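Entry 12.
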Amino acid sequence: MFLQAPQEALLQTLTANSLRWSENTPSLDCDNSFIPPLAELVSFAALQPVSGSSESELLKLQKKKLRAMDIKDTLDRLEDSIGYVQDNISLVAAKLAIQSLDSRL
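Predicted 3D structure (C-alpha cells):
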C-alpha cells in the first residue's frame, strides 16, 4: 500500500486546479442559465484522483463520480464529496506513514 509516486515528487491532486476552474466565471457566448452555479461546480471539484492511486482507488472514485451525477440536491452532493475527501486524506496519511516507516528500516 505504498504511494506509487517517486519519493522526491510532491503529493499532487487535481483538486486545487478543479477548485480554481469552478471559481472562474466562464466567458461563453450562451444563455447563462445553462452554466451551473458555483456550489454545483464545487460539488464535483473534490472528485479528483490523488497521485499514486491504486486501480481499486480509481475504480472507487469512478463509482463516486457516477453516484454524484445521480444526486439531485447540491448540498447532498457537497456532503458526499466532503466525505470522499476526508476518506482520501486518511488514506493518504496512512500510506505516507507506512512509506515513512519503510524508509527507516
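Annotation: The helical segments are 15-23, 38-45, 55-70, 74-104. The CA atoms of residues 57 and 63 lie 10 Å apart.
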